[in-house]
TauD/TfdA-like domain-containing protein (Colletotrichum cuscutae), 354 residues
Amino acid sequence: MAVQLEAFEVPGARTYFGHALPYGLQVKSSGPTGLVPPVVESAAALRALGDSGKLQDLLDKHGAVLVRGAGNASAETFSKLVGAAEKGRGSYPHVQIGLAGKRTPLADNVWTANEGSPSTRFYQHNEKAPKGEFIPILRGGATPIASSANVFEKVQAEIPELVEEISKRGLGMKMVFRAPGNEAKVNQFNWAGEHSFGQELTPEDDEATTKQKVEKQVRKLTSDFKWNEDGSLELTQHIPGIRRLPASGRPVWFNGLVGRHGITRDIGALDPPHIGRDGMTYLPSVYGDDTEIPRRLLDKLIDVIDKEEISLILEEGDLLLVDNFQVSHGREPWEGDRQILVSMWDTPISIGEY
């Protein structure tokens, strides 16, 4: 059964800089109509797309590629498909450090998306890895994405003060990791998690050894951290906040600022002691010099970016390849049965300085 990838228009797609976001590819086979092709054949087609350089070209132009009809919706199928596509591009699995949320591994380099409460909205954000991460998404529901280059243009036009200050001072992204046994009510995680900072911990470690091993992992992300009296770990990652795309040179809004402020506002943690209704700690949004960013700017930022979201309705088994440099993503609240799986990959291509 021969497999081909045919372009199709994705409902709800928008055009930025002359290219649709996302670009659609429908898997077609020579077999009976309606029959899902064997996974091995779909994987081979995606591998060929990656090997040829065409997948990279599509991602450079469009930012995201939606592959439809490649296989049944399972973690194992997903792993084979995305692995073929990304290995063809020369990507390698992202090593997770500092995971601030609950995710469950289901297959090779495949995880559940953040398992926080389905009633919680996740605002637009880019992942924190310094290199490109590609986040394929599987199975049902509305998934909002946005063009980071377009968002930059809108923010620059409507909130120039914020762009100017971030370009000068950068951002300080603060996070508190609770101690083991003192996790929040929902979305439980702590600093000892295997994919947070507990990669090298063993049951025999004493307190001093435990802290030493945890700090070793933390320093891979930042040198700005401290232990609090309650045993929690507070850290600040200093990031530019605005970068440039390696292919086009366009400036992009590349951070999780609106995501951090949005959930902090929604959960009722803007004021001291910054404890949300879910029991988690949400520290204020600050510039890189630790100066708090005015709320009026952050509230305006939410309004600006909300208007730029593309709400995708994914079908079961869809594979959405997202260039994390170019496209941010979020999550809308939902009811009922919904599962999104993620697989994160790094590439040798680094994002540019602003």
Summary: The mean pLDDT is 90.
